[in-house]
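Translate sequence into structure tokens.
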Amino acid sequence: MLIVSTGSTFAPGFTLAAQTAADTLRQLESGPLELYSESLDIVRFPSDSYSRLFRNYLGEKYVDYPPDLVLLICVGNLALAEKLLEELFPGVPVVVIGLTEEEISPGQLGTHLTGLAQRSDPRGTIELVLRLQPETRRIVVIGGTAEVDTQVTSRAQEAARSLTRRIDFDFWTNRPMSEMTQAVRSLPPQTAILFTRMFRDGAGQAVNSTQAVKLIAESANAPVYIMTSTLLGSGAVGGSVVDVAALARRAGELAHRVLSGAAPKSFPLEIRTDGVPTFDWQALKRWGISEARLPPGSMIRNRPRSVWARYQWYVVGALFIIALQAAMIVDLLVQRVRRRRVEAKLRENHQFMELATKAGKMGLWMRDLEKDEVWANAHLRSLFEFGPTDTIRFDDVLARIHPYDRGRLALAAERAEDSGLPFEAEFRTILPDGSERWVVTRGETLNEPRATRRLGAVIDITDRKRAEESLRESENRFRTMANTAPVMIWMSGEDRLCNFFNKGWLDFTGRGMDQELGNGWAEGVHREDLDHCLEVHVNSFDTRQEFTVEYRLRRVDGEYRWLVDTGVPRFAPDGKFLGYIGCATDITERKRTELEVVQQRAELAHIARVSTMGELAASLAHELNQPLTAILSNAQAAQRFLAANPADIEEVREILADIVQDNSRAGDVIYRMRALVKKETLQFASLDLSNVVSDVAFLLRSDAILHNIRVVLEINPDLPPVHGDRVQLQQVLLNLLLNAFDAMKDCPVDKRKITVRVEQDDARLLSVAVRDKGVGVSEDRLDKILQPFYTTKRDGLGMGLSISRSIIEAHGGHLWARNNADRGATFYFTLPTALVSHRSLTAAEP
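Result follows.
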């Protein structure tokens, strides 16, 4: 096998990948294996002449000994490296370990190539920065000028666009290393550094990324975050990193399969984008970052072992020797009795240990490295289906481990033994009956001069794995259901930022998911509605209550549509607040219908006023005839006084004053009649209700005289104002009084009395009562007379009462009727005071 690296032998990432892949392949291959290695270093030397020279060198060197397999460790342009190998070794299978930012289509590479290509995860690392240091307000992104450097920087710039409202980003990509190490010493507070990649600095000098990040971390007064595992240990905190060792192990397994006869096209090239949250323990402590802030499943490197972990067996051994010596001395004194007690105690301890491990479903093991024997407790034997008396060898245990996990587990254990650190791993077991189980094991090597034993514990986590798989399936079902639902669905986290929109929402706005996430959705809200919409969202998040809000949102065609948006808080089973889920519905047509209803109601009110004025025609004619007749008589008298010799000027002056007074009276009648008949929009203002009642009584004075009806006004002089439309409230009083006139047509003349009482119910309401002595209303009609189009007169539609009810309700009041105890009926209505109405309208405004 030929290992071809596009980087330098001095770059730790390339060296680690080559060594790990080779070690994995050696463990899996049982036959002879020859390994060759070549480092092209084209990242630092990208010239065409150098590439031709290396192409000729490889072609000449392996012309007689072509490899059976090429392992390509590549950073940058994967297609270019694959083309070079195809020219040099046509038809030879290629297994790739690639770090690339390019978009690779399925048919772009040949069928002879397989492996893994990993993209950096700048967005995941930025989110980790905000999780670990929520106070961060500025992120400085540091990168190089080589082509592979600028590709990663472009990914970071793309990730930063959606967060520019919360975070300020500075990109340092054209500065020399000497300038950068000085600039990071005096960064302002609430700043973090994201190191992307650097093979060449702003001065054009070749740079080792590991040395570069180490220099920056040592000089900076702010934490440094990274995206590659090989940079850990340089002083950086960590981030969502590419696990180079894991990629190399996987590539070693794929190389083994290819060498075993499998075709590369049977397992296509894997493109990975997700990093692993990995952090350096010492850097976390340096910057005072609590491990409680780390996301679940995070890896922590370089954690020192405690004093107990390093010396526990010495302490245990010393205590055991002391206890043994004491036991021997006591045994010499008490002999048989003490021996029996000790035996009983040992049995008790053994039973306690068995009970504890059984209750916790924990398997215990210890491996003797010299004898290759494994001791296991009863639960572990049962878990791996070993008999109670079976002798267990390490190979017997390996035979029970899934082939895909076997090499990874053995490599982790070997590294832990070499480094003297504990190891922990999850793997699958394949039992003799064919069943598969997931287990997690933690073990460590005894810290002795000659470490010959390793011990640990095993726990069955099959149910947890199945639960995780069930959760993933549940999330997939939810997304499928949400994307097929006929409504617009959204979801947000506890940070008030939206993290999901269904297909219905995205189709409506015509925007991508990345554009809508966070607060991006607010860009489509109408400017007049945005402040109110955000205020409702923020207040609801603070109180964690369900909310409903209406606002206009821009559709894909540019039209703003009215939506009603309902949000419901989400909680975990333990009561923890998780955010909101909501659904929005287009109500534009309903809004248009409501507007038409308001316009139609105004038309009906106008018709009712005109109809009422028709009924008052005789009364108005009589009311106008009196001042007009008086004007005529006074004008004739003035002519006579002027014709006298001498003319009586003083009498003429008095006559003219009477004419002016009669003209004002006629003008008032005409003004009030025009105000009622005129068709105009509502004019809400602060009104004195007593003046409104007095104006209507004045307008009906002649009609009351013609019908021999006495109208009595009982008005409290200290009433607060109301907020309403004067003409519409006059129409309500006019309708109620005319209905009262009509109800008393058949009453004796001395009983024809109407009382209008205006008083204050409480601090919030004014009450108006119109009481007559008429025939009253039958009980079966009391609940119907206020309904639309219910006939209340013998010869008319009877729209007056239903329209009156609509007007009062539009003013925030209530209209109802009751029969009097003695005779007749009373119609009541209430109106809120001007202060209460103003507060209500202000609260209802968007």
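Note: The longest helix spans residues 649-677.
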